[in-house]
Amino acid sequence: MLIETDIDLTMLDLDRAFKPFPPPEITVPLTSGTTTEQITTAGLAVDGRDSTNPNDARFAVWASNNTNVFTIQLVAPTTDLRNDFIPTIKLADVGGIPSTCRSSRPRIPPHPQASPCRSRRSCRR
Fold first, then answer.
1. What band does 100 get if pLDDT is binned at 50, 70 and 90?
2. 3-class SS at 89?
3. Where are the domains of the chain?
4. What is residue 20's predicted lDDT score, i.e. its pLDDT?
5. In the chain, N or C: fewer CB atoms in 10 Å?
6. How much is the average pLDDT of 108-112?
7. Torsions phi, psi of 121, nearest 5?
């Protein structure tokens, strides 16, 4: 499971979360790599790449206040074996604040007469 907050990304291994000795969560604080300035996350994309290989998972996190895209790949641990994976992080500077990922589906704008309320009875105009 991935939990995206305003400042970091946390990973939980749900396959083992309810075992007698569950592995600890892994929290990846997001910084620019050159400073300790906190990054404000703006989106997350998940790519399994090879669907036949459970060890081939990648994530991309982009920010609203930084020009880097954080690419996170899960790899086998070499020292702390409590988790089945550890994240490796690469930064890619894209030259500007990334916009949200574009869907292949066209965005349908809201109807100009649409009410922001769910129920007209609870809406006061």
1. low
2. strand
3. 2-98
4. 93
5. C
6. 45
7. -65, -35
